[in-house]
Amino acid sequence: MSDLRISASAIALYNDCPRADRLRNIDNVPPLPKRESYALGTHVHAGLEAAARAVLADPTAARAAADPRTLPDFLPAGAEPKTHKGARKILRDIATSLDLRHAIAAEQRFELEMAPNLPMFGTSKIIAVGVMDRVDRIDKTIHIWDYKSSGFPKSHEELACDPQAGLYLVAAKRLYPDAERVRVTFWWLDSDVKVTVDWDEDIEAIAVAGAVATARAREAEKEWPARPAARCASCEVREHCDAAKALLSGAFPGTTPKDGETPAAALVRARQEYAAGAALAETKRKELDEQIRALAAEDGGRLEVGGWTARIASRRRVEYPELEEVLTAFEAAGAKIADPLDIASIDAGRVKARLKKIPIEQARAIERDLEEASAHDVTSYIEVRQSKEAF
């Protein structure tokens, strides 16, 4: 008999959609390429890990890690320019909230035995595994940090029952038995929202029972049902899922209750199926846009076919430069900023608000300098209209 290893992400995936869990973790079907947001999150995590490791090696580095001008410098090289730029902005925005002075570990791995012998499932034991982004120690308190680069923040009540939060707390309690208090904070970086949960016996009981129950259910699963929802559009195995294919083709079961369903449950289930179908259709549209873009590019950026005109259109967006360049523009015009961190996130609203507070001649000089230093990001998209000949 072998050990059954399970992670918080596997627990969440099985609970969300057993079909996706089977396709990804059991059948090992080839996944689709990672989304751009995944690359951004990975890059941001790499930068924060590098900053934490620098502080662990030299505590004086904590000052650089808390400065919006220098925290982005911890990002590793090699990322796509757009990804790197997005990561730099996130790190600039959170720098003043980042305190690494008490860090004792970065990317702390753990293996947690959750249940002993389960011979009926052919498993010797259930082991929960995971990685904590950062661990701090303040006196007798162990504080775990988990960085979220995307998604909607969860409430304290939701996290108290969340498998990731529960497993982190249980693991930290065992890794650091001398701690009098153990807590975990989930930090949604893009919105700068932090939610903290403290260990207690109830949370540990819920985490252990949930992990064991999910592990047992996965071992005994026969049907592996699909549970359609809007998240299907970002599922890495959707092209191998018959349920996703059926929804994309317009095959919706409707609101008639199935066996054992109440009318209310049928409405909620149908709503999720329609949401999944809409999200999948939008994802497919974007994929087709890329194919049309390639064809249109071969014909001068315009494609006339089947009564339709498809063309490559564009939109222009101006992004302000790095903080240092903004400060230089202000100083060159003789308008120094007393508190540079006040505009550390550098967006149009904050800069324009500051320009209104200084003489108009200085403001115009600054605007000219910023216009030259700013990035003019031109993005293209596919525009499709019915050809005039079709009317």
Keywords for this entry:
391 residues, alpha+beta, Lambda Exonuclease, Chain A, 3 domains
Explain what the structure shows.
This protein has helices at 8-16, 18-26, 36-57, 62-65, 81-94, 156-160, 163-175, 201-220, 242-248, 263-297, 323-332, 348-355, 360-373, and strands at 2-7, 103-115, 123-138, 141-148, 181-188, 193-198, 302-305, 308-319, 375-386. The protein has 391 residues and is α+β, with helices and mostly antiparallel strands. The protein folds into 3 domains: 2-220, Lambda Exonuclease, Chain A, CATH 3.90.320; 230-234 and 241-283; 321-373, no CATH class. The strands form 2 sheets. Strands 1, 2, 3, 4, 5 and 6 form a 6-stranded mixed beta sheet that branches. Strands 7-8-9 form a 3-stranded antiparallel beta sheet. α1 packs across α8 (201-220), α3 (36-57) packs across α5 (81-94) and α7 (163-175) packs across α8 (201-220). The longest helix is centred in the C-terminal third of the chain and has 35 residues, at 263-297. It is flat and about 75 Å long.
Question: How would a crystallographer describe the biggest sheet?
Answer: 6 strands, mixed
Count of helix runs: 13
Q: What structural class should be given to the helix and strand makeup?
A: alpha+beta
What Rg do the Cα atoms give?
26 Å
Mean pLDDT: 86
Give the overall shape. flat
> What fraction of the residues are assigned to beta strands by DSSP?
15-25%
Quick structural overview:
The chain is of the alpha+beta class and 391 residues long. It has helices spanning 8-16, 18-26, 36-57, 62-65, 81-94, 156-160, 163-175, 201-220, 242-248, 263-297, 323-332, 348-355, 360-373; strands spanning 2-7, 103-115, 123-138, 141-148, 181-188, 193-198, 302-305, 308-319, 375-386.
